[in-house]
Structure formats: C-alpha cells, structure tokens
Amino acid sequence: MKRIFGCFDEKTFAKFAEVFASLVKLGMVVLLVGDLGSGKTSFVKHCSSKLGLNPAQVRSPTFSLVNVYEGKVKVYHIDLYRIDKDVEVLMELEEILERGDGVVFVEWADKIDTFWSGEEIKIAFDFCENGRVVSVESQDERFLSELSKRWSEVAQV
C-alpha cells in the first residue's frame, strides 16, 4: 500500500518526520528514495530527536557509506549512492539487517531494488512548488493507518 502525504514546506516536513519517528520500532528498515536534495538526509535528521539523538550529529553518509548513531535505539544511516553492486558493502548491509539491533535508514535504496525483501517501509521524496512531496509505502497496513491517523491529528493543530 502507498499513501501520499502532500506537499510540505520545511517546517511541516520536519513535523511529519517526527510523527513518523514516533512509530519506529527496533529492527525497522526504512528505504529512502528520491533525487539529490529531495530530503533523504533531512528526513533522518528530523527523525533523530524522537529517536534520542542529537540532530547535529546526523550527517550524510555519502562518503562513509554507514553512519551509526546511539540514542534510545541504535540508528544505522546508510547511503548507497556511490556503490555499484559492491559486494563488501552489500555483505555489511546484510549483516546490519540480520542483527536487527536498531533502526536502519537507507538512502538511495533504489540502487539495489532486488536486494530488499518487501517488508521494509519505503519513503519516496519528490519536489513540489512549496517544498517536498512525501509518499510512504508499506505492506503493513496497520503502520500506514496509524501514521495517517497520527499525522491527521498533528496536521489539524
């Protein structure tokens, strides 16, 4: 199932990320897709305070490939932009996923579409006139329903 949550300015985008982060559970894998500058790293940064992290420590893992942050839960922030089916990186990613000891955010996840099980939550970012369009896709209908419910409560305030 896929839900489109609308065109967000930066402030609303940050609120949406916080609502999303409030639903995150240990072992969750979040695939982030979108063009350069569409909000993938910003989304993780906006989620960070709800996950017990200092937002200032969240930075793009483009060159490190994997950043690990310690908060209420361990957060793995992975960037696949520079990989090209790199076996070592894929093995490390597989190991992180098997551990299930944290929350995993994967930027440029569409670079290895065939790698994913389908159980992950996929968030797509695109540009709109006033900011970003965010759509969330998941096989877990309860998660999407709860996200929609919580977002509608916050958006009305």
Structure description:
With 157 residues, this protein is α/β, with parallel strands linked by helices. Strands 1-7-6-2-5-4-3 form a seven-stranded mixed β-sheet, sandwiched between helices. It has helices at residues 10-21, 40-48, 87-99, 141-156, and strands at residues 2-8, 29-33, 66-70, 74-79, 102-107, 121-128, 131-137. The model has no long low-confidence stretch (mean pLDDT 91).
Neighbour order of strands in the largest sheet? 1-7-6-2-5-4-3
- Poorly predicted runs of 5 or more residues: none
Percent helix: 25-40%
Give the terminus-to-terminus CA distance: 27 Å
How is the biggest beta sheet arranged? 7 strands, mixed
What is the number of helical segments per DSSP (H or I, 4+ residues)?
Answer: 4
What Rg, in angstroms, do the CA atoms define?
A: 15 Å
Order of helices and strands: EHEHEEHEEEH
Q: What's the average pLDDT?
A: 91
Helix-strand category: alpha/beta
Ordered list of secondary-structure elements with their pairings:
Layout: E1 2-8, H1 10-21, E2 29-33, H2 40-48, E3 66-70, E4 74-79, H3 87-99, E5 102-107, E6 121-128, E7 131-137, H4 141-156
Parallel strand pairs: 2-5, 2-6, 4-5
Antiparallel strand pairs: 1-7, 3-4, 6-7
Helix pairs in contact: 1-2, 1-4
Give descriptors for this structure.
32% helix, 7 strands, 157 residues, globular
